[in-house]
Design goal:
With about 375 residues, the protein is of the alpha+beta class. The chain is built from 12 helices and 13 strands. The chain has a 7-stranded mixed β-sheet with strand order 2-3-4-6-5-1-13.
C-alpha cells in the first residue's frame, strides 16, 4: 500500500458528508486503484447483446458464444452505454438519448442490437471493473487493438516522485470516476498573495482507462488550502499516449489472460511517465501562473457586471442554472476578470459529479487565459 499522508493537506477537525464533487484523500484514492478488480474480455461484435431490466431500470451487456448461448453477462455504466451507442452507427447516440428519456428502453436496445448483428467481422474489447460494492460492471467497449495505460501504472510511478518532493508539495487528494482518475498537488508555500487570497501552484494529474483521453498533467492553482481550484487546460505540461504497434490479442472469445504490454514496453511507459511527472513539478511554470493571476485583477469590468458574467459563463458552457448560481457568488469588490472566474469556480464545490467539478475548474482557467481581444469584447457589455 502506498501512503502519502506526509504530503497531504491538513484534514478538517470534523469529517463532513462526502459530496459527489469532493476531493478524496490520496490514500483512499490509491487504495481504490489498487483494490479494484479489472478484467477485460474479447467478443465478436455481432455476438454482443445490449439489454435492459425493467424491474431495476438497469442496462446490461451479454457476450454470447458462437452457439448462441450467453457466455458472460455484465451490468453496464453510463460511459459504456454512450460508447456502445456512438460506435453502433451514425446518429444512434442522439437517438438513444431520446429513447432513454422517453421510456423506450426496449426500442433503444433493439436499435443498438440491430446494428451489432450486422457486423460480419470485427471483435470488441469489453473492459470490466469490480469495486467496493462487489458488482462487476462493463465500463468501456473498445477495439481489440486497444492498449490502455492503466491507473496502477501511472500512480505507482507517481508515488516515488512525490515522495522525493514532499518538502515542496502537498496533495489535495483527488477522485476516481467512471471516466477518468484525477489527483491534485500544490506547493506547500504560496507563490503569490493578492489582497485576501494566497495562491499555491501545482498540477492536476489525470488518466483514463476507458479511452476518454490519455494521461496528462495540467497546470493548477489553488486558493490557499480551500477546495476551489483553477485548471489551465491550455497549459498542459505533459500528455502521454502510448501507441502500441504489436498484434491483436490472440483470444477469440472470453477473458483476456495475456499481458497488454511486453516487459520492455512497460519499462518504456514507466520511464515516459516518470519524466513527464518530474517535468510537471518544475517550478519554472509558477512565474507564468503568477503573471496570469496578477493580470486578471487588472482586467476590469467596465460594463454591467451581471451581463458580462452571464456572457462569459455562456462562452464556457455553463448551464442556465449554473449561470444563475454564479451571479450569486460574484463578489461586489471583484468586478474584474479574476472575480468572474472566482464566481464560476465556486460552483465546483457543489457540482453534481467530480467530472463536472473538473470541467468547472477548467472553465475558470479558460476565463483567465482569454486574450486581450476576447476580454475587451465582453468587458464593457451593457444590460439589455
Amino acid at each position: 500500500m502506498i501512503h502519502l499522508s506526509e504530503i497531504t493537506a491538513p484534514a478538517a477537525a470534523t469529517t463532513p458528508e462526502i459530496s459527489p464533487a469532493a476531493n478524496l484523500g490520496i490514500d483512499a484514492l490509491f487504495t481504490d486503484i489498487q483494490s479494484a478488480s479489472k478484467e477485460d474480455y474479447i467478443c465478436p461484435r455481432r455476438q454482443l447483446v445490449f439489454t435492459h431490466d425493467a424491474d431495476t431500470n438497469r442496462y446490461g451487456i451479454n457476450l454470447d458464444r458462437a452457439d448462441g448461448l450467453t457466455g458472460y453477462q455484465f451490468r453496464t455504466n453510463s460511459v459504456f452505454n454512450k460508447q456502445l451507442a456512438s460506435k453502433s452507427a451514425p446518429g444512434v447516440l442522439a437517438l438513444s438519448r431520446h429513447l432513454h428519456h422517453t421510456g423506450q428502453q426496449d426500442l433503444l436496445c433493439k436499435v443498438v442490437n440491430e446494428q451489432l448483428i450486422r457486423e460480419e467481422n470485427g471483435r470488441a474489447m469489453i473492459r470490466t471493473i469490480q469495486r467496493g460494492d462487489g458488482a462487476r460492471r462493463a465500463r468501456a467497449i473498445a477495439s481489440d487493438m486497444f492498449r490502455p495505460i492503466d491507473d496502477d501504472i501511472i500512480f505507482d510511478t507517481l508515488a516515488p516522485v512525490l515522495d522525493a518532493k514532499r518538502q515542496e508539495y502537498i496533495t489535495l487528494g483527488g477522485r476516481r470516476t467512471d471516466l477518468r482518475t484525477y489527483a491534485k498537488f500544490i506547493t506547500r508555500d504560496p507563490i503569490l498573495s493578492i489582497g485576501k487570497r494566497e495562491w499555491h501552484a501545482g498540477v492536476v494529474a489525470s488518466n483514463s482507462e476507458v479511452g476518454a483521453g490519455s494521461f496528462s498533467l495540467s497546470a493548477f492553482i489553488s486558493d490557499s488550502f480551500c477546495t476551489n481550484g483553477i485548471i489551465f487546460k491550455k497549459m498542459e505540461v505533459a500528455n502521454i499516449s502510448y501507441v502500441h504497434r504489436g498484434s491483436r490479442f490472440t483470444t477469440d472469445f472470453g477473458n483476456i489472460l495475456e499481458d497488454r504490454f511486453k516487459a520492455a514496453e512497460l519499462a518504456s511507459i514507466r520511464a515516459l511517465v516518470a519524466d513527464a511527472i518530474d517535468t510537471a513539478f518544475n517550478p519554472r511554470h509558477h512565474g507564468q501562473l503568477a503573471d496570469i493571476l496578477e493580470q486578471s485583477h487588472q482586467r476590469l469590468i467596465t460594463g454591467d457586471v451581471p451581463t458580462v458574467l452571464d456572457r462569459v459563463a455562456k462562452d464556457v458552457k455553463l448551464t442556465e442554472a449554473e449561470r444563475t448560481s454564479a451571479l450569486l457568488h460574484m463578489e461586489s469588490d471583484e468586478a474584474h476578470q479574476f472575480g468572474v472566474q472566482a464566481a464560476i469556480t465556486r460552483l465546483a464545490q457543489d457540482a453534481a459529479s467530480y467530472d463536472r467539478r473538473i470541467e468547472l475548474e477548467q472553465a475558470g482557467g479558460s476565463v483567465l487565459t482569454m486574450t486581450d481581444a476576447q476580454w475587451n469584447r465582453v468587458a464593457d457589455l451593457k444590460a439589455a
